[in-house]
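Section 5.1 Outputs to date
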Amino acid sequence: MNGTDHVSIDETLRHALAQGMAATELWSLLLSVLEQRAAQRTPSMVRQQWKTDRFVQPCAVNQRMLNELDSHLLAAAAEFEALELSPVAPLASCSTVALTSQNRIVSTARGTEVVSDPTNVLALECARRLREAPDAVIKLTTSHRCVRAQAVPKRPGFSAHFRMFCLASAAHERKDHGFVTEALAEHIRTHLSALDRLEKHGYHFPDRRLRLLATPERRHLAERMSKEIVELPVTLETLEHPYYDGLRFMIDAGTPDGNAVPLIDGGAFDWLRKLTDNKRMVYVASGMGSQLAAMLFRRVARIA
């Protein structure tokens, strides 16, 4: 058998597993394979993986510190309903609606994936609720440990799994894009309130700066928002990233070494329109790298 034959067999097998087999049969097959793989492993092999695998390493931040941090962040988001999400979500929760590859996500053998971005999961919950109550305004928040499979920047505070604080708002759009602009402004002010609260409990976020990014078609909305948000300096920039639906915001803060860190990121997304088949649905989501905040911006080590 030559190399070409091997390639042909691999492609045939891949096609059969990906498309030619019913999902329930595939999950059953994969679970059986993993069970047999696990039976072949020794304690020393497990110990070695615990030592070297970046996905299983414990977080570098003290858990008590993260719990205290979460309590302050959730308190700042009192206007949002707080959800404790499952560690896993339906397979393709991100890749079916957002511009991302499934290869960047840890998929499981049970038709699920480890949550890599809570805002995608919150969009699913918003879609469910709006189907039941189409006129509702949904506002959700969560703090969640995420796992991502892409390469990790070799900088302090970055790891394969990390804590993220998120906000999500969803509703039918109103006249003159009233809902999307109002929701974005509320997210910005909530995050700023969270930073203010943290600064009373041992953190420092100097040199804050708000960037509003918009496509040319939506620049007038960014300009409208920039006049309403007076809590910190605002700069307008052109949005080129197609991941967002025309509007994005970023909040930077300075670290003790003088570097500006993009700590908070949010914007409008078209995910809810895809999930509900309703073009009038608007979804706004944002997130703060809370674990990054604990590592780079804490100036008083009070938690032991």
